[in-house]
């Protein structure tokens, strides 16, 4: 097995005022909607459709029940971008202790990349992380939003995070086993 050098960057915002929202894309019919009914099938579809060409594979072995526990966690939310009624990408929010919200997954389906949707979707996802307690009254108000990205993610990911006001707080470099790009389903390649 061959190995590759993987760099993982962790970024954060510590105030809603840190967010520098992107301008919504012009000319397209882009809407961002919360998937209010937890659905393991829909969550898995988004995960594989967005991450299949950039080696998102950590959740592929999960069972239906494991996916279900992720999407049914109180405070967990999926915010989905649609262009003309078609899913274009998503943001997954994971509520953690002490008013912390992690953006666990964020990205666009390959056909929708490079169309100025990503900055708009990330902006809305971050807004929704900051106001999560308004929709989940048992949660304390958000005091920190964080995420990580890595050298396998899209070439514009880090720039998008920095433009939205995230600040780097940790960098980790490690040698990892190189894996196949799984595609949106086993054996599919973009």
Query: Helical residue percent?
Result: 10-25%
Order of helices and strands: EEHHEEEHHEHE
What percent of residues are in strands? 25-35%
- Please state the structural category: alpha+beta
Low-confidence stretches: none
Would you write up a description of this structure?
α1 packs across α2. This protein is an alpha+beta fold. Strands 2-3-4-5-6-1-7 form a seven-stranded mixed sheet, with helices on both faces. The radius of gyration is 16 Å and the shape is globular. Helices cover 24% and strands 32% of the residues.
Supply database-style keywords:
190 residues; alpha+beta; 5 helices; globular
Short description:
With about 190 residues, this protein is α+β, with helices and mostly antiparallel strands.
């Amino acid at each position: 097995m061959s190995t590759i050098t993987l760099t993982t960057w962790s970024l954060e915002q510590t105030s809603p005022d840190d967010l520098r929202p992107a301008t919504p894309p012009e000319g397209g019919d882009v809407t961002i909607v919360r998937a209010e009914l937890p659905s393991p099938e829909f969550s898995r579809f988004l995960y594989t459709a967005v991450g299949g060409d950039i080696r998102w594979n950590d959740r592929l072995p999960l069972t239906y029940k494991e996916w279900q526990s992720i999407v049914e966690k109180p405070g967990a939310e999926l915010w989905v971008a649609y262009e003309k009624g078609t899913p274009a990408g998503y943001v997954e929010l994971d509520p953690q202790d002490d008013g912390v919200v992690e953006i666990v997954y964020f990205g666009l389906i390959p056909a929708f990349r490079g169309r100025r949707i990503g900055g708009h979707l990330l902006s809305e996802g971050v807004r929704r992380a900051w106001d999560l307690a308004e929709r989940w009254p048992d949660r304390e108000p958000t005091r920190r939003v964080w995420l990580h990205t890595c050298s396998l993610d899209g070439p514009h990911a880090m720039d998008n995070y920095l433009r939205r006001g995230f600040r780097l707080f940790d960098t980790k470099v490690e040698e990892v086993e190189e894996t196949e790009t799984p595609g949106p389903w086993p054996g599919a390649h973009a």
